[in-house]
Amino acid sequence: MSQLPLGPDSRTETLRRLQPLLVQRFGHIRRAAAERRAPEWTLVQGVIGARTKSEISNAATDRLLTRFKTWEGVAEAPIDELHDALATQTYPNVAAERLKASLTDLVARRGSVDLSHLETMATEAAMDWLEQLPGVGRKIAAGVMNASTLDRPVLVLDSHHRRILQRMGLVPAKADTARAYAAIMPVMPPEWRAADYDEHHLLMKKVGQTWCRPARPDCANCVAQSLCATGRGENPKATAAAR
Ligand code: SF4
Question: What is the pTM of this model?
């Protein structure tokens, strides 16, 4: 029996309609300056960034390079100097230890802190390669692939972004970040380029900070309300299950 062709997934249309609403509310978000888009810079920024605001991690990443001159210099720095250099991070000790471990491993694999080989790799294979480094999970790997000059259309999904997608009924309610990523990536608008993914993630962070906070979402004021299962008063679990 021949199968009827599947129509476009409604989640794709939801994401397409959501983006201009968010741009209208928050404005376009500019991508980082060129010196903050080297893959090695984005890797370090991700590894030290646990539970720390992006601006603070950005500044700390710049300071590391200024203080130790090269990323190899950072890899070789004594751990107490790294603690000191990362004092602005929420967990300086964890950040220092993760950074030391990941850069040391990278130097052991590549001879230096160099990710240029990722340019010729397929996106999934490159992310798998990155995830072998200590302290590098899917979110950091996606950040390196998307926000750097590698410019791949990959979604950076953190727990805040996942929470919003779950409340909207776009990914399963109990999905962890890896499952949520697997659920949403196939329905991302195919015309979106890396910069659109980057902007989408940064705009969704603003949704999380402005209305969709962890404890109690302020749906009545949220611009996503009509596109969101929770905002429409539906059960997001049922909406996601019906996909
Ligand atoms: S409508 Fe409510 S649940 Fe949906 S994204 Fe906005 S604040 Fe979150």
Answer: 0.89
